[in-house]
Design brief:
The complex is a heterotrimer. By secondary structure, chain B is mainly beta. Chain B has one helix at about 35-45; strands at about 5, 10-15, 20-25, 55-60, 65-75, 80-85. A four-stranded antiparallel β-sheet of chain B has the order 3-4-5-6, with no helix packed on it. A two-stranded antiparallel sheet of chain B has the order 1-2. The radius of gyration of chain C is 37 Å and the shape is elongated. The chains are: A alpha+beta, B mainly beta, C alpha+beta. Chain A: InterPro entries: SoxG (IPR007375), SoxG_het (IPR006280), TrmE/GcvT-like (IPR027266).
Chain lengths: ~210, ~110, ~1000
């Protein structure tokens, strides 16, 4: 028996699925709200999220990750991407890998194969978190209302990813483009973030994209 | 609100991202069974409360989730260094053996 | 008649915009650009409140934040009430409604005023302490009247309709104060490319430059201000914050700024706009350019309306076009204050006389006044003013400041305004918020900021640099230095040309002597907001209060919102003289945040209403809502508490839910339990070290209950952990303990046992957990899964993988109810689909959703503990009668083992967890109730334990409880008693804590 239980937890596209913000019915809000909204929000749902643990200083680990994903292991506070796959530094021995939904099991197997014999952990956390994408000229102000982390472009260039305090809880902020940011949120807090972001965006106008 | 340099993230971060976990460099006795009740009590409950240099354990809970050490002056709240678990402090009370500042008359607590 | 005291021309007001406002029910008019104080003075309103203790009429003294009297209640509706607004800081808007906060029943006829007059000597300092503290039972009654009479403003009774928020800022240089020095500092720093924030509490930038008679480069100083502001506005990384008070200087250059975004626009913020905002600023460098406050002179009846600071007179005349009187007497000990007389004279008003305490003043401004024919009385001061509700005269006499004596009978001068200046006090508040001791400078007769570890630069008036050109130069230098220290290449700017003047030194004069002596002279107020007199300070020192901090507390000097802005230096100088010591020896009290009052709205920001605290929901929450659940807060989670049907109360619903579980099958959302995925070759060893029991032999496919202790041996969490592969475990924790347990595990791994190869990752949110519990749970689940549900194939305390409702699941056969139970875990995105299939299939089994209350009853019937309810951090596994869960022979000395062998922990007669069965089966023992062995003993009784959990149960047919009792495990069958507040006593029998199915037969089917 394998030392680790690797389990296909995804039932496939036919099963009924509800994202963390399912109850907010974002689709019904598309096109409503102010024109030229300062902030546009989109839930990037049903992606494959994997937590990867290992020794970042070990060349074999970095090599295995590269072999499996075609991505260099990102250094502190950065996220690297290749198409729809992104790999983000979370801590000195922890990374967040996000892949297209449904690929998480195959990717985990591939990684385990490439890292065979090393002390690692890979955990499927796809059900437990989600990405909220914020886009627009006023996202920076919304972030300033929410986090004590400095989001000025001098300090937060594109490609940076930071775990921090946001409102009264915690999440990860990633800057993916000039005006585009992502929040990695935990499922159980997603309604709090949804309410918070609506409120913080109100004075700039909030638009929803499906 | 302290500004703390996380040695793993390599940045200064606001205190609210961290959790203070008390005095650092208190090793768990390797053989607890051989400790007397008093020794075990010292290990569990007794901590220094120095005026001046203090080595503390902090956890970057909202960031990289790593514990690390902080050398902090308990008078000025200045953080003199932060360093990873397993490393030794560069600044210790012995280095800072200047005379303790005399308390001026009338220096009371703020109310 | 409207605006009788408005000058015909002048001021930075817009006379084309007339604004109506009301004060104490009467309507007045002012102009755009006025402060409320300016508009009140323009209308001749002199009494703005009654004093705190003596209830004397009080008028406006100052023009800025240091105002101690004009502290008003603002708001035209109940919901928009704001207490404690300084009229000198509130911009006038159309429809403003203000009322006095002091004065009961009203400011003109005041009950306490009579009491204060008659009882003046009856209310010495310490009066409240001395009189009202005894007898204690009267305190509440007294306090009600004192508070009402003292009038500290009131909070609104309705919800504030406006919104408030926070903004987190980061900058290279934060400049506090936009007067001459602050503007120069901002310019020097901003030109270097640094990120700069400039904040000033006033409506517009400029500080004293907005009302000074000085020129810069030959032009009015305000023109220089406009040019500087325009240049700053054009720079991309400069944030300008007018109406923004830097209120707190916190550790590591973290400062809080209270910005009043729309307070100047109306009673309510315009739609979509925030009323006030707190900026939380982390600054690389701070430039303090807070300036200085003029000190009033302390003399008899100096609190009568019509007594004012000299600088304030200039401000009202020059900035607002208001003359707060007709006939001015100026009393001063310095040159600078002569500006007030000159401004007054230039406005065409009468200067009756200037009393200068100095012997032979010859400064430029003095000579200018002489040249204009103004009468100057040297070696003199106003020693008292008179009038019933407003100044009608001032007595000027010759004084000897060395001997503290009046040396001439003096003369009464007719006047309606006494302006005084006793010198200038640098505004060192922010510089001392972190404990930095101000340093006394004899040359400027003021405290300046001392050395401090903060990365800050002080410029201008706060450093005692008062001449205009010097202040600007100091600002340029300080701003450039701050930017340079922050890593920018900065240079100083060109100081504009000013008029050179000869200025003579200020004479030390903190209390004007009176011929009757301090004790018998008319009251000489030092702190008008707190009604502290010079006599009170002398009395305090005579009573033995020698430390400045003690004098402060005994007299209330500089208390509360005042924070010693006007009175501090005078007060401590009087105390020092009374004690025969110098001011440096006396020292100063410390200042604390906030510099000025902050509204609760601004403190709360957006963290109110539905955003007050994060609320966590499970993936099944919508289903619970749809099915009528009542919710309970468990940590941040919303958990279904019970699911009432029509007409049911909690008791009926819980009884029904309990019965359904015991008779057929129930459904619980257990998703909130903490879940930690543990992987690594040393996972087993790690579990051995942090759990009390052994994990070495747990086979793959099996699960085990474990207890966790801290090093002291006290239980702090529990849960079931399953071995899903040889090096792979899924741990569950309590709902509330999830984050705590993971942090604690990381602590040991990272700091004590870094050699162990194991990783932990939280999967609490990833897995949704549905518990099916009851004798029909197997039948129900069998219909939905491909797992072999045979009791031999899937025994108790094991887990299986398979599909449930078509979705991959991990199913654990464990039980918290004592019934046959299965916990179905699926990836949370698919949980709702699986739940719906379970519910559909469960109809024929009367599948009943149940909440935390039923869960608690069912587990208590089985004697299963809930950590945090039946434990309180002082209980060991032995105390809980759970020694079966303690592996004393494990090779590694696991966390808690040594602690639970300490002398006090192994002693006899510790409180132990037992079952409690009330003798009357219908009586319910309140949770938390104390227990005694003998209810007839005298009070205070010897308490031997308390009730931890208590329920009325349907399965048992009687109420039952769990509780801790001293030596309880050896007292089975004995009685304990719980005396209740109403005098009744509940009698209970000590029994086993396992009330139901003691052999565990129901779950082994």
């Amino acid at each position: 028996m394998s030392a680790i239980n690797v389990y296909q937890q995804n039932p496939g596209a036919d099963a009924k699925a509800q994202s963390p913000l399912h109850h907010a019915d974002l689709a019904s809000l598309v096109g409503k709200g102010r024109n030229n909204a300062g902030v546009t929000l989109r839930e990037k749902k049903f992606l494959g999220h994997l937590t990867l643990r290992g020794d970042g200083h070990d060349q074999a680990f970095a090599g295995g990750v590269h072999k499996a994903l075609g991505l260099e292991l990102p250094v502190a506070l950065t996220v690297v991407a290749n198409g729809d796959t992104s790999l983000q530094w979370v801590g000195p021995d922890e990374w967040l890998l996000i892949v297209p939904g449904g690929q998480e099991f195959a990717v985990e197997q591939k990684l385990r194969e490439a890292l065979d014999g090393q002390h690692i952990q890979i955990v499927n956390v796809s059900g437990g978190q989600s990405l909220l994408e914020l886009r627009g000229p006023n996202v920076r102000e919304v972030l300033m209302k929410s986090t004590s982390y400095d989001v000025h472009p001098n300090n937060f260039p594109v490609g940076k990813a930071v775990g921090t305090v946001f409102a009264k809880s915690q999440l990860v902020i990633r800057r993916t483009g000039e005006d585009t940011w992502e929040l990695v949120v935990r499922r159980s807090f997603s309604d709090y973030w949804w309410l918070w972001l609506q409120d913080a965006s109100a004075e700039y106008g909030l638009a929803i994209e499906a | 609100m302290l500004h703390i340099f996380c040695p793993h993230c390599g940045e200064l971060r606001s205190e609210e991202e961290f959790h203070a976990s008390g005095q650092s460099h208190i090793a768990r006795p390797l053989d607890p069974a051989s400790c007397s009740d008093q020794e075990w009590g010292e290990y569990m409950f007794f901590r220094d409360n120095p005026r001046g240099i203090h080595h503390e354990l902090w956890d970057h809970v909202a960031g990289c989730r790593q514990y690390f050490n902080v050398t902090r002056d308990t008078v000025t709240y200045e953080i003199l260094e932060t360093y990873k678990i397993g490393e030794k402090p560069q600044v210790t009370a012995a280095d800072k053996q200047e005379a303790a500042p005399v308390i001026a008359k009338g220096q009371g607590e703020k109310v | 008649m409207s605006q009788t005291y408005r000058l015909a021309s002048g001021g930075r007001i817009d006379r084309s915009k007339v604004l109506n406002f009301s004060f104490n029910g009467k309507t007045y008019q002012g102009y755009a650009g006025d402060t409320l104080a300016a508009a009140l003075l323009a209308n001749g309103v002199d009494i703005v409140g009654r004093s705190f203790k003596y209830s004397r009429p009080r008028g406006i003294i100052a023009a800025g934040t240091e105002e101690p009297n004009a502290i008003l209640q603002i708001g035209s509706s109940e919901a928009t009430q704001i207490p404690n607004v300084r009229a000198t800081q509130q911009a006038l808007y159309s429809g403003l409604v203000a009322t006095s906060t002091n004065g009961w029943p009203n400011v003109n006829t005041d009950v306490m005023g009579i009491l204060g007059k008659v009882g003046g000597s009856m209310m010495p300092p310490g009066f409240y302490y001395k009189t009202f503290m005894y007898p204690k039972s009267f305190w509440m009654t007294y306090e009600k009247y004192i508070r009402k009479a003292a009038g500290l403003g009131r909070a609104p009774l309705q919800n504030d309709p406006d919104s408030y928020d926070y903004m987190n800022q980061h900058c290279d240089v934060l400049i506090v104060g936009a007067g001459p020095a602050g503007l120069a500092a901002a310019l020097a720093a901003a030109r270097s490319g640094a990120r700069v924030i400039l904040a000033d509490e006033q409506e517009e930038f400029g500080g004293t430059l907005l009302d000074t008679r000085e020129t810069l480069d030959g032009k009015p100083a305000a023109e220089w201000v406009a040019a500087v502001v325009a240049e700053l506005e054009a720079l991309p990384d400069v944030t300008l914050l007018p109406r923004a008070t830097v209120n707190g200087y916190h550790d590591h250059n973290f400062l809080t700024i209270h910005e009043r975004l729309t307070d100047h626009l109306g009673d309510r913020a315009p739609i979509g706009q925030v009323r006030q905002r707190v900026h939380r600023v982390r600054a690389n460098r701070v430039v303090l350019a807070a300036g200085a406050h003029e000190r009033p002179l302390v003399y008899g009846n100096n609190d009568l309306p019509g007594n004012m600071l000299a600088g304030a007179v200039s401000t009202y005349v020059r900035r607002y076009g208001v003359a707060p009187g007709r006939k001015l007497v100026l009393s001063t000990n310095n040159d600078h204050a002569y500006r007030a007389a000159l401004d007054w004279h230039d406005a065409g008003l009468q200067v009756v006389a200037i009393a200068d305490a100095r012997h032979n003043p010859r400064g430029s401004l003095v000579e200018e006044a002489r040249a204009k024919g103004i009468r100057i009385l040297t070696s003199s001061a106003v020693i008292e003013s008179r009038g019933s509700k407003h100044v009608t005269g001032a007595r000027v006499a010759a004084i000897d400041t060395q001997a503290h004596k009046v040396t001439s009978p003096g003369e009464w001068l007719d006047c309606d305004l006494v302006a005084t200046s006793g010198g200038y006090s640098p505004v060192v508040h922010l510089a001392s918020h972190l404990g930095g001791r101000p340093v006394w400078r004899e040359d400027i007769l003021g405290f300046v900021p001392g050395d401090a570890p903060q990365k800050r630069v002080c410029v201008g008036g706060i450093n005692g640099v008062y001449p205009l050109a010097d202040a600007i130069a100091d600002g340029f230098e300080g701003g450039a230095r701050a930017a340079t220290e922050a890593g920018f290449k900065a240079s100083v700017g060109n100081v504009p040309k000013t008029v050179a003047r000869k200025e003579e030194a200020t004479l030390a004069l903190f209390q004007v002597p009176h011929d009757k002596g301090t004790a018998r002279a008319p009251k000489q107020f030092v702190d008008q907001q707190n009604d502290v007199t010079a006599a009170a300070i002398e009395l305090a020192t005579r009573e033995g209060f020698e430390s400045v901090e003690h004098v402060k507390r005994y007299t209330a000097l500089g208390f509360g919102t005042d924070q010693g802005k006007l009175g501090n230096i005078n007060g401590l100088a009087i105390a020092a003289r009374s004690l025969g010591i110098g001011i440096p020896q006396m020292g100063t009290t410390m200042f604390r945040p906030n510099y000025t009052p902050v509204t609760f709205g601004a403190v709360a920001g957006r963290h109110c209403g539905h955003l007050f605290e994060p609320v966590r929901f499970t993936a099944l929450h919508a289903w619970h809502v749809k099915n009528g659940a009542e919710f309970e807060d468990v940590g941040q989670w919303k958990r279904p508490w019970y699911f009432p049907k029509a007409g049911e109360d909690i008791h009926a619903a819980v009884a029904r839910e309990c019965k359904a579980v015991r008779d057929s099958v129930g459904l619980l959302d257990a998703s909130t339990l903490g879940k930690i995925d543990i992987q690594g070759p040393d996972a087993r060893e790690f579990l051995n070290r942090i759990y009390t029991n052994a994990w070495t032999k747990l086979d793959v496919g099996k699960a085990r209950y474990g207890l966790m202790c801290k090093e002291d041996g006290m239980v702090f969490d529990d849960g079931v952990t399953a071995c899903v592969a040889d090096n792979h475990f899924i741990m569950t924790t309590t709902t509330g303990g999830a984050a705590r347990v993971l942090q604690w595990m990381e602590l040991y791994l990272q700091t004590e046992w870094p050699e162990l190869k194991v990783y932990f990752t939280s999967v609490t949110d990833h897995w949704a957990t549905m518990t099916l519990s009851g004798p029909n749970s197997r039948k129900l689940l069998s219909e939905l899964t491909d797992i072999d549900m045979d009791k031999e194939a899937f025994p108790f305390m094991t887990w299986k993988e398979g599909k449930v409702g078509g979705v991959p699941a991990r199913v654990f056969r464990i039980s918290f109810t004592g019934e046959l139970s299965y916990e179905v875990n699926v990836q949370a995105n698919y949980a709702m689909g699986v739940l719906e299939k379970i519910v559909e299939a469960g109809k024929k089994y009367n599948l009943t959703p149940y909440g935390t209350e039923t869960m608690h009853v069912l587990r208590a019937e089985k004697g299963f503990i809930i950590v945090g309810q039946d434990t309180d951090g002082s209980m060991t596994a032995d105390d809980l009668n759970m020694s079966w869960c303690v592996g004393r022979n494990k090779p590694y000395s696991w966390i808690g083992l040594r602690g639970m062998n300490r002398e006090d922990v192994v002693r006899e007669n510790r409180k132990q967890l037992v079952g409690l069965k009330p003798v009357d089966p219908n009586v319910w023992l309140p949770e938390g109730a104390q227990l005694v062995f003998d209810p007839k003993q005298p009070i205070p009784m010897d308490m031997v334990g308390h009730v931890t959990s208590s329920y009325a149960s349907n399965s048992l047919g009687y109420s039952f409880a769990m509780g801790v009792v001293k030596g309880g495990l050896k007292r089975m069958g004995e009685r304990v008693y719980s005396p209740q507040a109403d005098g009744s006593v509940i009698e209970a029998e000590i029994v086993s804590s396992v009330f139901f199915d003691p052999k565990g037969e129901r779950q082994n089917v």
